[in-house]
Design brief:
By secondary structure, this protein is an alpha/beta fold. The protein is built from eleven helices and 13 strands. The protein has helices at residues 16-27, 64-71, 85-90, 92-112, 152-171, 197-206, 226-236, 257-268, 293-299, 307-321, 325-329, and strands at residues 7-11, 31-36, 54-58, 74-79, 118-121, 175-180, 183-184, 211-214, 220-221, 224-225, 246-249, 255-256, 275-278. The strands form four sheets. A seven-stranded parallel β-sheet has the order 3-2-1-4-5-6-11, sandwiched between helices. A two-stranded parallel sheet has the order 7-10. A two-stranded parallel sheet has the order 8-13. The structure holds nicotinamide-adenine-dinucleotide (NAD). Nicotinamide-adenine-dinucleotide binds at residues 12, 14-18, 36-41, 60-62, 80-84, 98, 121, 123-124, 157, 180, 182-183, 194. The site of nicotinamide-adenine-dinucleotide has 29 residues, from helix 1.
Length: 344
């Protein structure tokens, strides 16, 4: 590898998964440039990693002029920057602009700058939930499962991955598409429209407040600890056989939201914690569970952290932070898909 191509760029690197990926790259001595406009990411997520070898550029991914000099020295771009699923419910146009249009712009710039590898981090939301076919029931979702997104976020992520695949097929540009399933762990979001179910449930349970289930709670997810998610993404940028491929990264375990409430009460040690049901969320996917055979065979990926171990590790992280759960919950928005300003 030429010394001119010495850095790895992580867009969205100050976010939840991106900051873990940055940690794993930095731990093995990679030079990393984090590209993040901090709209949802935080400087404090990466503050302890910053050094002459790991730098943070506070810039929008749509500012290609600012990125170009850095792309010319990069050996890989991991593209994670995006706006989330609840954001897409209240602000669909902006969501599409950042997630789809800006991905196309970044792909064109990376190809122009000859970056040797582009890893597009997509989402299990592109599937839109396990479907029934006339002859087969999809128990786990392989990468060949139909992509039928239910939200503008899922649609915009699918557009981004289609563009990444098109750059490989049309121009021979080396891209890889990774589809993570629901990640959780330290630095996950409980706040605002980024808030996710596991941090919200844990904090509510710790604070003695009810866990709020949207719908009947039979909807299921594949919850993956963030160190496993980030490791799968990292491997996708390394293995030559991954180029041109689309690869699930998950735990392979399906857990319903009702089961999750029980696990959380067990791990927090509050068996009588209250659970209440609220109206379903618009566009909520009924089932998501990953078949990770391709990640295992192609990347050497192996999910290592069980859900109960992961919940304990996240609990410990909250305790170590010293910030009371009640204080963190002040940033929670319960119905966080509802617009406070824009019109959908
Ligand atoms: N968290 C999950 O469970 C999950 C599951 C599947 C896929 N993913 C994918 O993983 C990636 C990371 O997700 P996350 O959960 O860490 O989200 P996150 O919001 O924590 O990280 C995204 C980062 O992108 C940054 N960003 C947003 N718009 C930007 C812009 N215009 N320019 C520069 N930076 C911008 C944000 O500030 C944030 O730091 C995303 O691509 C997401 O689709 C996440």
């Amino acid at each position: 590898m030429s010394s001119e191509r010495s850095t790895v760029i992580v867009t969205g690197g100050a976010g939840f998964i991106g900051s873990e990926l940055v940690r794993q790259l930095a731990a093995r001595g990679d030079r990393v440039v984090i590209v993040d406009n901090l709209v949802n990411g935080k400087r404090e997520n990466v503050a302890d990693c910053l050094s002459p070898h790991v730098t943070l550029m506070v810039v929008d991914i749509r500012d290609i002029d600012a990125l170009m000099p850095h792309l010319r020295t990069a050996r890989a771009v991991y593209h994670l920057a995006c706006l989330g699923v609840r954001h897409s419910v209240h602000s669909p146009h902006e969501n599409h602009d950042v997630n789809a249009t800006a991905t196309l712009g970044l792909l064109a710039a990376c190809r122009h700058a000859d970056v040797p590898r582009f890893v597009y981090v997509s989402s299990s939301e592109v599937y839109g939930g396990v479907r029934w076919a006339p002859t087969i029931r999809w128990e786990q979702m392989t990468e060949d499962h139909p992509a039928f997104p239910c939200t503008v976020y899922g649609g915009s992520k699918l557009a981004g991955e289609c563009y990444a695949r098109a750059y490989y097929r049309t121009y021979g540009y080396p891209t890889v598409v990774v589809r993570p399933f629901n990640a959780y762990g330290p630095r996950s979001h409980h706040e605002g429209d980024s808030g996710e179910v596991i941090p919200k449930f844990l904090l509510r349970c710790l604070a003695g407040r009810p866990m709020v289930v949207f719908g009947d709670g039979t909807q299921s997810r594949d919850f993956t600890f963030v160190t496993d998610t980030a490791h799968g993404i990292l491997l996708a940028g390394e293995q030559p056989q991954a180029v041109g491929e689309t690869i699930n990264v998950g735990s392979g375990q399906e857990v319903t939201i009702n089961e999750l409430t029980q696990l959380v009460t067990l791990e927090v040690g509050r068996p009588n914690a209250e659970v209440i049901h609220d109206r379903p969320r618009p566009g909520d996917v009924p089932r998501l569970v990953a078949d990770v055979s391709r990640a295992k065979s192609m990347l050497g990926y192996e999910p290592r952290v069980t859900l109960s171990e992961g919940l304990q590790r996240l609990l410990q992280w909250y305790r170590d932070s010293g910030v009371p759960p009640e204080q963190l919950l002040e940033q929670e928005i319960l119905h966080n898909w509802v617009s406070t300003s824009g019109v959908a």
